[in-house]
Design brief:
The chain has 5 helices and no strands. 70% of the residues lie in helices and 0% in strands.
């Protein structure tokens, strides 16, 4: 796991991204916690006559599952865990920074695809609703550009940290 350099007075941008990351962690826990409810209702209603079979639980579970995955990916990029694979032998700190910059540039490229295609994906769903629960589909589709923008913010911050190491600006 890569530790981000600590400063005595973090910039406003770092405080904003740290707060946003904390919000994402809370939302991730909430999504997982709430996801248990419709899935449990589905399971119990299939095997017992005590609870009627609700149709809305399937769509709610699907929506929550998609958001859980996307928020988890955002948190994973922030913590440098999602797209991080240690395949290089022991490198010097500057060489490792260069490799990480290349890795994060790949994340940025994928993030730009998510933003561009995600905006189109969301516009496609803007006036559509789900079949069963009549929920607006843009609520689920907007997860893609949100993930892309989050990855840009988090990976961009990490690239700046690694560039400081690469060019010897930080100890």
């Amino acid at each position: 796991m890569t530790e981000m350099p600590m400063r005595s007075n973090p910039s406003l941008w770092r405080r904003v991204t740290a707060g946003y990351a904390k919000l994402l962690e809370i939302l991730l826990a909430a999504c997982v916690g709430i996801l248990v409810i419709p899935v449990t209702l589905q399971i119990i209603s299939r095997y017992t006559p005590f609870i009627p079979s609700y149709i809305w639980t399937e769509e709610m579970a699907r929506f929550l599952f998609v958001w859980t995955i996307m928020i988890g990916a955002m948190v994973g990029v922030r913590e440098a865990q999602h797209f991080e694979v240690d395949v290089w032998p022991d490198l010097s700190r500057r060489s490792e920074a260069a490799v990480r910059i290349l890795s994060r540039l790949g994340i940025l490229a994928l993030a730009l695809v998510f933003v561009w295609a995600g905006i189109e994906f969301t516009r496609f769903a803007w006036n559509r609703t789900s079949e069963l629960a009549d929920l607006p589909l843009w609520v689920i589709h907007v997860a893609w550009p949100v993930a892309g923008f989050s990855w840009i913010a988090f990976a961009g911050e990490q690239i700046l940290d690694e560039a400081r190491i690469l060019f010897g600006v930080e100890p």
